[in-house]
Specification:
Layout lengths: L1 H20 L6 E5 L4 E2 L8 E7 L4 E6 L2 E2 L5 E2 L5 E6 L5 E10 L8 E11 L2 E11 L3
Antiparallel strand pairs: 1-3, 2-10, 3-7, 4-5, 4-6, 4-8, 8-9, 9-10
Amino acid sequence: MSIFFAICIIGIILIVAVGITIADATKLEISNPSNNTTDNDLPFDKLTLFGVTDPNATVAVYVNGSQINSGNITANQNGKFNYTVTKLPFGETLITVVAKAPNKSPSQTAILYYTRTESNSGEQAAMNLTYNATF
C-alpha cells in the first residue's frame, strides 16, 4: 500500500511539474505585407510589418540574424503591433520576427525573405513569408 501511495505521489508531482514548465506558445501572425508580395506593392528600401500576437507581448525583429529593435515593440491590448524595417540593402535580406507573451513560450518564427533588385527598368522588390519553429 505504501509503495502504491508513493508512486501516486511521484506521478502527481511529475504531472504538476510538467504542467508548470510547458507553457502555451505565444501566437504570431504577420498580416501585412502579405505573402508573395512583389514589384510596386512594396516600398524599396523599407518594409513595414503589421501583425497580431498575444496582448502585451514583446516582439523582436531580426535582420540577417541581428536584433534591430532592442525588444522595444510591445503589442497593444488587442495584440496588434507594427514596426518599420529601414535601410534595406540591394540583394537578399532575411527578416525574422518572434513574439513572447508573459507566462508563455516564444512564438513560432515568422521568416520573411526580402529581395531588392535594380535593373534598367528601375527598382523592384519581392517578399516571401513563411513560418518555422522558434529559433
